[in-house]
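Z., the sequence and structure:
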Amino acid sequence: MSHETIFIQTGLADKPRKSRWPARLDLLQSTTGLFLALFMWLHMFFVASILVSESAMWTIARFFEGYFFFGKAYSGLVSCVVGFVALAFVAHALLAVRKFPINYQQWRIVRAHTKQMRHEDSTLWIWQVYTGFLLFFLASAHLYQMFFWPEKIGPYLSSDRVWSENLWPFYIVMLLAVELHGGIGLYRLVVKWGWPNAPREALKKVKWALTGFFLVLGLASLAAYMKIGYEHRAYMGEPYTPDWVMEKEANADRGDGQ
């Protein structure tokens, strides 16, 4: 008797098969989370270029606007990148909400089990929920701003936003939330998918070392923007232009005059 015949005669054929969609959605959640975490780290290095010099930060900002490829800055290119990141962020958020407690009773059960078991990974997951909830609002506001006003990214204009527009408290909270959320998320991804295959204690040490490094880098960068913004407060709204660019433009103007 074939397997198909047994399957039919026992009535199992009438039972619905388990859907593969939960596994597919879980994979998509992991993929979008990995992309966002890696992008966050790269973004942190780009932002931290202000620690090198104002010219370095200007160069990176203009690079993403295509200045060194087209001879002119197109801020719309940044909006395209931000739009793609925003789509990944929304997708990840919607997928993550599936695992959130949906009412107060479920939340009490999770909290009670966590306190009773004193399981560190469960505690990390709860902190990931807290920070993820904050990022629904903070990251959305930041992406909205960068999408519609990408031309305001630069050493002076970004510093004006941080200091003169009093957004430094916003960036401090967002920095703490995004670094904790991303670090915990990457740790849980490694544990879930088993790569690299290493003891959890070792992975946690790496996770906290990376979180500490990016928090220090982020706070140092924010302090630099605050300092520049304070010094530039009397000229708020005036963009930064490197000397070599001003010389290039002056030479072009003289050439047009001739």
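Residues 21-246 form a domain with the 3 helical TM bundles of succinate and fumarate reductases fold (CATH 1.20.1300.10). The chain has a mean pLDDT of 88.

Let me know what you think.
H.
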